[in-house]
Design a protein that fits this description.
The chain is an alpha+beta fold. It has 2 domains: about 100 residues, Pseudouridine synthase I, catalytic domain, N-terminal subdomain (Alpha-Beta Plaits); about 110 residues, Alpha-Beta Plaits (2-Layer Sandwich), CATH 3.30.70.3190. It is about 20% helix and about 35% strand. The protein is built from 4 helices and 12 strands; from the N terminus they run E-H-E-E-E-E-H-E-E-H-E-E-E-E-H-E. Strands 1, 3, 4, 6, 7, 10, 11 and 12 form an 8-stranded mixed β-sheet that branches. Strands 2-5 form a two-stranded antiparallel sheet. The protein is elongated.
Length: about 220
């Protein structure tokens, strides 16, 4: 086929703990087991062309992961989801297959849903504190950097928070929905939450869950 293809897939349950590199290998093996031939790179050591534009952090779940590949033979795009799902481990589920669309650089923002559980009834106060922090003109946090000699760099996260779409306390639980910049630079919600907890240590949760709900292009349409 002339154009590369993409699959939209979800990642949940125990599959949340499959690392990005292992996920790539899992997908490559699933294509093999399903009898689906995909495009390989050229050169002396060709390997399957499989690319995920926005790697998901370990422990995060998602409804909107995208993988790009080149379908050569073995099935049609319509048949591919069922064939792949039969070969994939529990927790990884292909939702659809389609011809590739916008280039990866057009992927601009991500919607995350975060759930924080507290040992004490502080969810409402924690939500108010989070709103206060994200309303500041500037808030600098440390994040890991391979380029920095120290292994860390400082970043102002406020320009990278596009919106706090929801802050909803429910008993000992706080539900947050955030729209964050995706890349160049992007903001991992875990970096933001670590900065928040350093600023407000009294609101440390006993459990937290992160879910990637949707990714968007530069026109704020779902990126596909």
């Amino acid at each position: 086929m002339a154009n590369d293809q993409r699959i939209l897939f979800s990642k949940s349950g125990t599959a949340k703990y499959i690392s990005h590199l292992d996920l790539i290998h899992t997908m490559e093996r699933a294509f093999l087991r399903a009898g689906i031939a995909i495009r390989h790179t050229e050169g002396f050591h060709p390997h399957p062309y499989v690319s995920i534009p926005l790697p998901l952090s370990l422990g995060f779940s998602s409804d909107c992961e995208i993988l790009e590949f080149g379908l050569v033979s073995g099935c049609t795009m319509e048949e591919l989801p069922d064939r792949m799902n039969a070969a994939l481990p529990a927790g990884i589920h292909v939702l659809r297959c389609y011809d590739g669309g916008l280039p990866f650089r057009k992927l601009t923002s991500v919607r995350y849903e975060i759930m924080l559980e507290f040992a004490e009834p502080v969810a409402e106060a924690a939500g108010q504190a989070f709103q206060e922090l994200t309303s500041r003109e500037r808030f600098v946090v440390q994040k890991r950097s391979k380029k920095a000699k120290s292994g860390f760099t400082e970043v102002d996260v406020i320009p990278l928070v596009e919106a706090v779409e929801e802050s909803r306390p429910d008993g000992n639980l706080l539900f947050l929905t955030l729209l964050l910049k995706a890349q160049n630079p992007g903001l991992n919600p875990d970096v933001l939450m670590k900065g928040f907890l350093k600023e407000y240590p009294d609101f440390s949760p006993i459990y937290s869950a992160y879910h990637r709900k949707e990714i968007f292009d530069d026109n704020q349409q779902p990126y596909r």
